[in-house]
Design a protein that fits this description.
heterodimer; A: about 300 residues; mainly alpha; two-stranded antiparallel ribbon; about 70% helix; globular; B: about 475 residues; alpha/beta; seven-stranded mixed sheet; six-stranded parallel sheet
């Protein structure tokens, strides 16, 4: 019984920690869709640019991680604005073209990183080194920092949207773009601001994601898949939905790490494993498919 | 018949002129043998190292031919190097066929099994010898066994995964159990062909052949590099050590997280990317204390050819990654010499003659003595395995720097062979090997004593981690002769 309680405690702690990061990763993605109705497939690449900027500033400019982090946020903010004005603004009317254009952008960024940096996997130094004990669970200290920073960013973002004039302008544009334009809101400026904030959030997430796991030119794919799954499960454009979905997916991933696997062998063919740690990545996609069947608009999405 | 003096001089003049011109234009000389190379040369350092190893061998061989220390022909790889895009069997197959069209008489290289498998049917159909210097899948030598006439053109300088796993079992018994006192291990394997095979073999053989219990076996997905929960489970299992098996690039987060968590279990296993000298920088020094299987380290004089090759490599490529030779550089370098010897003995490049001569190979290279297994062996055309031939070397990452996280990644890291005992060597000032076996054995005994003390104190967190770090530092001192 005691062992079950210990495992339950660990599942809860790891879920709470990783889900906060997942929520932060998905936040910028859901915001762009909620306001501008654009599925930005370059979102993962934004995170990667943030991670590489911080790594470059640390390794080559010998900056401390805090300054490197600030630079990453600035670079990603600018990247968001540049991508909007340089590309998305011109193709936004066609969702398919936007989808392909942003994906192409991500692939270009991947190739540029391969050209200018190494393809080898790198580690971003943690903000705080070491690990701590929470009751019977050992946790890497940097993850507590990432958890705190993720929630700080989420709360600040929520306060900005709901408590400031510009936030209300963004909400109004998200609800009805034409109506917002009719009452004198400069929609293009709102979009610019939205892309800038999305970029900044991706920059923050990128640095923490990198210090949580790794940096390499392919690291944009996982955050994009996670963001996509979270946003679809939570309901496209719903902040609350994204947070709930992040916790659901985080929980399933941690649960898979602890669940025993079932091995099924077919005669004359190889064996297959069901559940267990090799199913960590599959769980979120299974939830995504299930939600698409049961509640296509997502947990907190509005039906069309 | 009388020849006039004028005619005689004319013939002599034309003859001398033709002889001079033939030397300049290469008339009468044997054309160089075209060797093609296929590997992940764009994306992965193992591919770049492969090209560099081949290039150094090529230049050395051609110089020896010029100096008449080796018979002609020379070798060439001009325009014959192709990328296989890491995992693309179709790309590797197209590259193989295109190189043969370009006149390549032998192909060398290969890294991931998936890409090598793409080349094998073309190799059999086109009857061109292929020397695999990078992939470890045993299915290729099994093909030679199953249909010798069809697949006899396949040879390999790498140990296959089964033999590598067997070597790992021997290492667990000799180093981990007998010297370090390990009773239980945790296996952390990636969910790939390599990881699954390695896991299966170790789970079956460690208890029976090494007398070591498998306390925990984990198969993790390649795209999920979060190890916190996995490492916590390993801690709960009370394992004395961790054996990883990673061929893809998932090692960096694993290394980072074992260091941050101060996991109380030394890590000794296979992490392919961890063989690169740049790995110290990539992990910020957190790889301190990890030991991985490798073909050679360069710093350790395994044979009289290891250090000269290592030095030549560093002198030429020391400024660009991979700045030290990876295993594919050693095997491909050796492979070029093996090919040259076989071509000379076969007096040409007729594929069947070349196969016959490759089978007679007996060459001491940078990684050991190379002889290929016979066609009746269980793994035909793989290198013979054993202390007198080729074995895996288990190499420890260490440094003399006080804080590994602050060590200079260019100057401070050391890579020292800790198993097998015969390769516990350091070079003296002239590069001659000196055994450091006694010194490492003493450090291992101190580690065991420290672990016993740690157990008596109730296993406080990080205690065994610190003991292992102390062992690692002692090995560094053994290596520099302190």
């Amino acid at each position: 019984m005691e062992q079950i309680l210990v495992i339950a405690e660990r599942i809860v702690i790891y879920t709470v920690l990783i889900s906060a990061l997942y929520a932060l990763v998905a936040l910028g993605f859901t915001m762009i869709f909620g306001v501008a109705r654009v599925l930005n497939l370059a979102h993962g690449a934004f995170l990667m640019v943030g991670a590489y900027t911080a790594w470059f500033a640390q390794q080559y400019l010998h900056w401390d991680l805090y300054s490197a982090f600030a630079l990453a946020v600035v670079v990603c903010t600018l990247l968001g604005v540049v991508l909007y004005h340089g590309l998305v603004r011109h193709v936004q009317r066609s969702p398919i073209v936007t989808l392909i254009a942003t994906l192409a952008c991500a692939l270009i960024i991947e190739e540029l990183i391969k050209i200018f940096f190494t393809t080898n996997t790198q580690l971003l130094a943690p903000f705080i080194s070491g690990s701590i004990e929470i009751d019977k669970t050992t946790v890497i200290t940097n993850r507590i920092v990432a958890f705190g920073a993720s929630w700080a960013a989420i709360i600040l973002f929520w306060l900005f949207v709901h408590r400031t004039r510009w936030g209300k302008v963004i909400l109004a544009t998200a609800q009805d773009q034409e109506g917002a334009a009719l009452v004198g809101i400069d929609v293009r400026r709102v979009y610019t601001l939205t892309w800038a904030i999305s970029g900044a959030l991706a920059g923050i997430a990128g640095v923490f994601f990198a210090s949580w796991v790794k940096i390499d030119p392919f690291m944009w794919r996982d955050p994009l898949i996670i963001s996509f799954a979270i946003v679809v499960v939570g309901g496209l454009g719903s902040l609350k939905g994204s947070i709930v979905a992040a916790y659901l997916i985080g929980f399933l991933e941690v649960l898979m790490t602890y669940s025993p696997s079932m091995r099924i062998c077919t005669e004359g063919f190889r064996c297959f494993e069901f559940l267990g740690s090799s199913w960590v990545g599959v769980s979120s996609l299974l939830v995504l498919i299930a939600i698409l069947f049961i509640k296509p608009e997502g947990l907190f999405g509005r039906a069309e | 018949m009388r020849i006039s003096r004028r005619s005689f001089l004319r013939v002599l003049g034309v003859g001398a002129g033709a002889l001079t011109l033939s030397h300049v234009l290469g008339w009468g000389q044997q054309p160089p043998v075209k060797i093609g190379l296929i590997g992940p040369i764009v994306l992965l350092d193992v591919g770049k190292a492969m090209v560099r190893g081949a290039q150094l061998a090529l230049e050395e061989i051609n110089k020896l031919v010029d100096e008449k220390k080796l018979p002609p022909p020379k070798l060439t790889m001009d325009g014959l190097i192709r990328d296989d895009q890491v995992i693309r069997g179709d790309v590797a197959k197209a590259a193989f066929e295109e190189l043969v069209e370009q006149g390549a008489q032998v192909i060398i290289g290969g890294f991931l099994d998936e890409a090598v498998m793409g080349m094998i049917p073309s190799m059999a159909r086109l009857r061109k010898p292929f020397l695999n210097t990078g992939s470890s899948g045993k299915q290729f030598s099994e093909l030679v066994k199953s249909d010798y006439e069809k697949y006899k053109y396949y040879f390999r300088l790498m140990l296959n995964s089964e033999v590598l796993a067997q070597d790992a079992v021997g290492m667990v018994k000799g180093l981990m159990k007998e010297e370090l006192g390990v009773q239980k291990v945790a296996l952390v394997m990636e969910d790939s062909n390599f990881g699954r095979d390695f896991l299966k073999i170790l789970q079956a053989k460690l208890p029976s052949e090494a007398g070591v219990e498998v306390a925990k076996a984990i198969n993790f997905p390649i795209n999920n590099p979060d190890f916190n929960a996995i490492l916590q489970q390993i801690g709960d299992s009370d394992a004395d050590a961790i054996i990883p098996g990673f061929a893809f690039n998932t090692g960096v987060p694993f290394v980072g997280q074992t260091y941050e968590l101060r996991v109380d279990a030394p890590v000794i296993g296979i992490i392919t990317e961890g063989q690169a000298f740049e790995y110290w920088k990539s992990t910020g020094g957190r790889v301190m204390g990890h030991a991985y299987a490798d073909a050679a380290t360069g710093e350790t004089p395994l044979t009289p050819k290891t250090l000269p090759f290592f030095q030549a490599y560093v002198e030429r490529y020391g400024d660009s990654p991979p700045s030290r030779p990876l295993y594919t550089a050693f095997t491909t370098y050796d492979g070029m010499f093996v090919l040259k010897e076989a071509i000379d003995r076969a007096k040409g490049t007729d594929p069947d003659r070349l196969v016959e001569e490759l089978e007679k190979t007996d060459y001491v290279g940078t990684v050991g003595r190379v002889q290929f297994r016979g066609k009746d062996d269980v793994y035909p055309h793989d290198p013979k395995y054993g202390p007198e031939y080729v074995v895996a070397k288990w190499v420890l990452w260490t440094t003399l720097a006080k804080d590994p996280l602050k060590a200079d990644p260019q100057k401070d890291p050391l890579r020292v062979v800790i198993w097998p005992k015969q390769y516990r060597l350091r070079p003296d000032e002239e590069g001659r090997p000196i055994s450091i076996d006694a010194c490492i054995s003493k450090a291992a005994a101190e580690y065991r004593a420290a672990v016993e003390e740690w157990k008596k104190k109730g296993k406080p967190r990080g205690g065994r981690f610190d003991a292992w770090q102390a062992f690692t530092r002692s090995v560094a001192k053994c290596f520099v002769g302190q």
